[in-house]
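Q: Give me the 3D complex with 2-acetamido-2-deoxy-beta-D-glucopyranose.
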Amino acid sequence: MVFEPLSWRLGLAGLVVLGLALLLRKLYPKPYPGIPYNEASAKRLTGDVMEIVPIMKETNELSAAIFAVTTRKLGVPIAQFLFPGVRKPLIVLEDPREIEDILVRRHKEFDKAAIDVEVFGAMFPRATLAQYTTPELRAQKRLWADAMSVDFLRRVAAPNIYKCTLELLELWGLRAAQADRPINVLDDFKNATLDVIWIAMLGEEAGTIRFDIERLKRQLEGDGTALQPPSGAFLKEQVAYICETIVRNFSTLHPNLAQKIETYLPRYRRFRSSVTREMTRCMKKAVERYQHLTEGALESDALDTCAMDLVLRRQILQAKKAGVEPSDPTQDSNMLDEMFVLLVAGHDSTANTLAWFARFMERFPAVQSTLRAELRKAFPGPGLPSVDEILNAADVPYLDGACEEAFRLAGTAKANIRQTLVDTTILGYPVPKGAEIFLNYHIDRTPTPLEEEKRSETSRAAAERHGDGLSGIAGRDLASFNPRRWIVLDKTGKEKFDAYALPSLAMGGGFRGCFGRRMAQMELRIMVVLLILTFEFLELPEEHQSMAAIEGVFREPKHPYARLRILRE
Ligand code: HEM
Ligand SMILES: *[C@@H]1O[C@H](CO)[C@@H](O)[C@H](O)[C@H]1NC(C)=O
Ligand SMILES: *[C@@H]1O[C@H](CO)[C@@H](O)[C@H](O)[C@H]1NC(C)=O
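A: Here is the predicted complex, encoded as structure tokens.
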């Protein structure tokens, strides 16, 4: 999630220094036996590290650069990225079926990588993403799980997502009416998804898009008076600080230590206390509501307005059942760490995926028209469909396919790392305990062919159940955005969405898969329906037509623009 796709990102600067230090100590890379690697790199002190420098200069995408110099250069599904001898090689795996198998079915052999856990652990040790899969972590996940259940999301989050989207439509309506200039959609999506996650987690309005609307209206009227910044503005600053710190500190020799040191500095202290202040204010309101309820009343989620409510109520209920005084949640570091990470994780990721969706609509106009036609058929109007209609009423396979394609082709979280818990094998190659595996989550090209016998037993069994979509029509021309690859005909000849048409890796998978998956899917669906029915995404000027990406914490479009035509007022 949030920073994880890059958490293996030992910075280049650090590695160069490391390379020089090693020169003195004559330490060469130490490849694992058997797994393919560049022979020449094994004879170099710097291993593969310097190979990626020129590629990075051109593309700004570190994950892609790693694949380029290993698996792609060697033309194999699995290879090693060699570091100078003090660091073990990174095993690079590109085959989507085996990756899915590792995430979903082989969790006894693989867990989160140490580097993920450590770098987050310095700042948010009690957040789930900074923990290995232990019994405590399982308990913590259980406590939060219902906040992402379909029922809870539909009742509590969906109406707020819908409302925030209508505000975004209003803002874009104003922008589009004003001038025929491309809009930076990523900026606006980031504000909108912040509004969504804030209210979904804390039950309060962040008011970011509302603020942007008012500000723009005043500008249009020539009114120069300043507006009071919305409450969400504060979180934007804090999130930016944390992202910058993590990205910066990954490029040091000791990312973990750098992060730890940061936590003693006044800047971090201020950050921590302002975030805690804001969250405890919200928590206190919720606790006051629940404290006096009976056990029976506490069983029901009818009063919950957000994820935090649900968790606090559960904790009070558990305490009452156990006959003890509920602990003070504002002192509960599990709660505070988890909430902050969710606020961060839940917004930039979704905003980037939406920005890619906007790029795809421009780049694939025929898909855009088909999608709009299908939506008009499903939601004839006259007005926009309600949130219930979008989520419950209509069966629109082309819409399901379009959302799935957006996740797949965006590559927002391009890659992530797992580590082996035991000696094991991948595609028949021996992999020792403690090895780090760099997994490609971005399925945007035909995988390198490989013999079925090399695959794990569980991977072969899964293909027997669901088929191997990648080798069929669904797997053709994977660089193009085509919702139809997710559509099959049922027995009566009717089109239906097939979630198994291809592996889904955009949000990882298995027990350590994305916690916010269902919420992100819901958010995307609501936004896509309302956006496509309200605007046409027109062709962009040539300088903005590129599909180039920048990979920071997430992989984002380098040209996140859209030119909009308003279809309805
Ligand atoms: C388009 C949107 C999103 C994308 C592409 C995305 C992607 C990911 C990925 C790739 C992972 C790592 C999973 C793995 O390696 O198996 C992850 C983990 C995670 N995501 Fe998301 N995510 C998105 C939205 C969200 C939202 C909305 C939330 C919160 C409400 C969220 C919270 C988390 C958390 C807490 C984890 C860590 C889970 C763990 O360590 O067990 N994500 N996400
Ligand atoms: C929305 O995003 C833009 C660009 O990031 C920013 O300049 C603007 O102030 C944001 N609005 C608020 C209320 O933060
Ligand atoms: C860690 O990141 C922060 C914020 O960008 C920076 O001020 C600090 O110097 C970094 N630590 C090290 C050791 O580079």
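A quick observation: The chain is about 50% helix and 10% strand.
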